[in-house]
């Protein structure tokens, strides 16, 4: 499967510059008007009919190959093994615990000095001297003021 992807990608990368080169070599529609008045294009490399048929057919073939390679790469890029889930499902798997000291997980672990446990308030209003003041859940209490 990996070899097939490499081959398809290589074919696509070779057809892209080929198409670019062929499109840049072709004449515009206004260039054919000069040939009608005797511009001398009948003595060209591609014969009396000019390069329009050869270049336009080759460009069309390269475009079809490029389009087919793009579809194949999109198909193989979205094909996943049956056991794999989405990125969001894999993000919910907890990481193995490290041997570092226990730091609270969540916003309190990110606040400097927030690693110490704070006793929970006893009611709507805490009495003075019963412990440390309650830290707001947003972490705004840890921001130093002047």
UniProtKB/TrEMBL annotation:
Record carries keyword Transport: yes
InterPro entries found in the cross-reference section: SecG
Tagged with keyword Transmembrane helix: yes
Organism domain of life: Bacteria
Keywords from the named record: Cell membrane, Membrane, Protein transport, Translocation, Transmembrane, Transmembrane helix, Transport
TM region(s), chain numbering: 54-76
Membrane topology note: Multi-pass membrane protein
Main location: membrane
Region listing for Disordered, in residue ranges: 97-146
Pfam families named among the record's database cross-references: SecG
Protein task: Involved in protein export. Participates in an early event of protein translocation.
Matching NCBIfam families: secG
Similarity comment: family membership: Belongs to the SecG family.
This protein's name: Protein-export membrane protein SecG
Lineage: Bacteria, Pseudomonadati, Pseudomonadota, Betaproteobacteria, Burkholderiales
Gene: secG
